[in-house]
Design brief:
This protein is mainly α and 450 residues long. The protein has 17 helices and no strands. The longest helix has 33 residues. The radius of gyration is 20 Å and the shape is globular. The protein starts with 5 loop residues before the first helix and ends with a helix. InterPro entries: MFS (IPR011701), MFS_dom (IPR020846), MFS_trans_sf (IPR036259).
């Protein structure tokens, strides 16, 4: 392997993850405009966000296998171009259903690029520069979280919500061009766990549909209950399948190992609470404070501005005890931050913005920290599959977070008021995030003593 600049490797890998982050924030800012343009409700907005994440999570195992067979370079390039092309086509949507369809297609592109960006990173860095490069990768990617709300808000204010989907093309062309400077990863043929993939996808879909149905204004409660029970049964079936197949989608030993189980569960929870809170904060700020899309973008931008700083700090950590300390502090501060944001959501605006920026810093600590934690826990031969599982957990966590906490906001809103419902749901996200402290404490303490 030819020695590559950590900045070059990180910037190419970040073109993929950064574009996904740009999309997430720009679309989040556009949600009220999309709702008004198509005269739709919160449940449709939840499906618009979750359609992408469900497809990404479902297709991650296939994309990992395609990367193994055809090389991560070719697969990454196909994914980044497909993601951008689907976004551009989505800008011409004439109905919310059509837009959701293109979001699902974007999810397929996202599945191709996300695990293969980490595979490219692993193939082009040495063990000595790995943590530094991971920190750079997360930090550069996080600029998408900063450009997305501001650039998206500005475009939406002047040209409408469709303009939020135009910026992907520039990022995709940069990544497709600069990837030629990197070495390809190793190629090998792996068997796919088709039963596991099917049951995992069906589990996520059934639970997501059931949770969103519960939150609808005219909910069909028997249908919602049936879907949730079906999802739980499918989840148990998935667990049993993974113990019997030769090449499982998720290594069963990771579910019994307190270290990997704790990190993955915590990752799912805080990815869910962060995604749901960002969704609710964007809609609440534009509805209750009557902010323009650009002003709403500034609110989301404040929640992202310090994420790269947090990621860089985590990326520079060299030992597990320090990683444990910083992730525990980050998780409890994020939990408290969301409760404070909920209390201030209709109060002093500047104080709420300051709290948002601190919460974003804590999220950055966790986003980079979990990647390093998994790499430290697993042996090198299992690093790629561990990172793929981490990507899957992030997507599924975001899906469940938006479905569960988004529906909770609707239920709270019917009991109080729409705005109060969203504030209470953000507080619920903060309480849920507190569980990450205990999960990470147990997992990373075991890693220190290993």
């Amino acid at each position: 392997m030819t020695q590559k600049s950590p900045l070059l490797v990180a910037s190419v890998a970040a073109a993929g993850l950064g574009m996904v982050m740009y999309d997430n924030t720009a679309i989040t800012v556009a949600l009220p405009a999309i709702r008004d343009a198509f005269h739709t409700d919160t449940s449709s907005l939840q499906w618009m966000l979750n359609g992408l994440s469900l497809m990404t999570g479902s297709m991650l195992p296939f994309s990992g296998a395609l990367g193994d067979r055809f090389g991560p370079k070719r697969t990454f390039r196909a994914g980044i171009l497909l993601f951008a092309a689907a976004a551009l086509m989505g800008s011409f949507s004439t109905s919310i259903g059509m837009l959701i369809g293109f979001r699902v297609l974007q999810g397929f592109g996202g599945a191709l690029l996300l695990p293969n960006s980490t595979a490219l990173l692993n193939a082009n860095v040495t063990p000595e520069t790995r943590n530094h490069t991971v920190g750079l990768w997360i930090s550069i990617s996080a600029t998408g979280l900063i450009v997305g709300p501001l650039g998206g808000g500005l475009l939406i204010s002047h040209f409408g919500w469709r303009a939020a989907l135009y910026g992907h093309t520039v990022i995709a062309l940069f990544g497709a061009w600069r990837i030629g400077k990197l070495d390809d990863g190793p190629r090998r043929e792996n068997s796919l766990d088709f039963p596991g993939i099917f049951t995992a996808s069906a589990t996520a879909l059934a639970l997501c549909a059931g949770l969103i149905q519960f939150g609808r204004r005219h909910a069909n409660y028997p249908l919602a209950t049936t879907l949730i029970v079906l999802g739980l049964l499918l989840g148990y079936l998935f667990y049993r399948i993974e113990h019997r197949v030769e090449h499982p989608l998720v290594d069963p030993s990771w579910l019994t190992d307190v270290r990997t189980r704790g990190v993955l569960l915590a990752c799912a929870i805080y990815n869910g609470t962060i995604a749901a809170s960002t969704f609710l904060i964007s809609v609440l700020s534009q509805d209750s404070r009557h902010l323009s899309p650009l002003q709403g973008g500034i609110v989301v931008w404040m929640s992202c501005i310090l994420m790269p700083v947090g990621s860089r700090i985590s990326g520079r950590i060299k030992n597990v005890p320090d990683l444990r300390k910083i992730m525990l502090r980050g998780s409890i501060a994020l939990s408290v931050g969301y409760v404070i944001i909920a209390a201030l959501s209709q109060g002093p605006f500047l104080l709420m913005l300051a709290t948002l920026s601190i919460a974003g810093f804590c999220a950055g600590l966790l986003f980079s920290g979990d990647t390093i934690a998994i790499l430290n826990i697993l042996e090198p031969a299992k690093a790629s599959s561990g990172l793929a599982t981490l990507s899957l957990v992030r997507q599924i966590g975001a899906v469940f977070g938006i479905a569960l906490i988004g529906s909770a906001s609707e239920l709270f809103g019917r009991a109080t008021s729409i705005d109060n419902g969203k504030s209470l749901a953000i507080a619920l996200a903060g309480v849920a995030t507190l569980s990450c402290y205990f999960l990470l404490k147990k997992a990373l303490t075991a890693t220190v003593h290993d």
